[in-house]
Amino acid sequence: MGYLDTYGRGPSQELVNNNAAQHERTKESGRTMSPMDIRSALQTCLLEAWEQGRLTCGVYHAASMLEKNPDEVMLCVLADDNFQDVALRIHFTLLEAFCWENDIRVIKVDASSKLANLLGDGEPVNDNDVAAGRSARQGDFSCVLIEYPKDDNSVADEEVLDFYKSNEDVLPRPVITLPD
């Protein structure tokens, strides 16, 4: 199926029905979007944004960015990890609520570790890297903000935004399963 129930219970009948409804909406609009397509599009979108310097990684950095420039945020990607830290869960809930209130799109992925594998470079961070602002690839990937591009949206950006639009009315919201 490709999606996990957002509450961690595994696939449910409601989610199956929602995925079928989403597939029908994308067929009606002339587009067919399979779960593999959105995974590839989201990965490409994240990597392009990283290369262009449009990513903000980490809960606290994201909160700061949202406070200063919420209109510049195209998409908020939240990991659907089962965090044991209650304070972190509260931060996530507040971030998500802020995004909904400010019409910022929120997409959930299955694990922050998979985002770290995709965006992290594995090289050690030293004081010079931190001073140069290169520490983002070595930290918290539980929340990633993607800013709007300076030019037009890329094909991958459009695919992700189309996926979001086609799933606006789907509850519970789908969680995108990223490859390991």
From TrEMBL:
Identify the Pfam families for this entry: Ribosomal_L7Ae
Kindly give the InterPro entries that the UniProt entry links to this protein: GADD45, Ribosomal_eL30-like_sf, Ribosomal_eL8/eL30/eS12/Gad45
Q: Check the record and name the SUPFAM superfamilies matching this protein.
A: L30e-like
Q: Name one GO biological process term.
A: regulation of cell cycle
Gene3D superfamilies listed in its UniProt record: 3.30.1330.30
Q: Which residues form the Ribosomal protein eL8/eL30/eS12/Gadd45 domain?
A: 44-124
Start and end residues of each stretch annotated as Disordered: 1-34
Q: Mind telling me which GO cellular component terms the entry cites?
A: cytoplasm; nucleus
Family to which the UniProt record says this protein belongs? Belongs to the GADD45 family.
Protein name, please? Growth arrest and DNA damage-inducible protein GADD45 gamma isoform X1
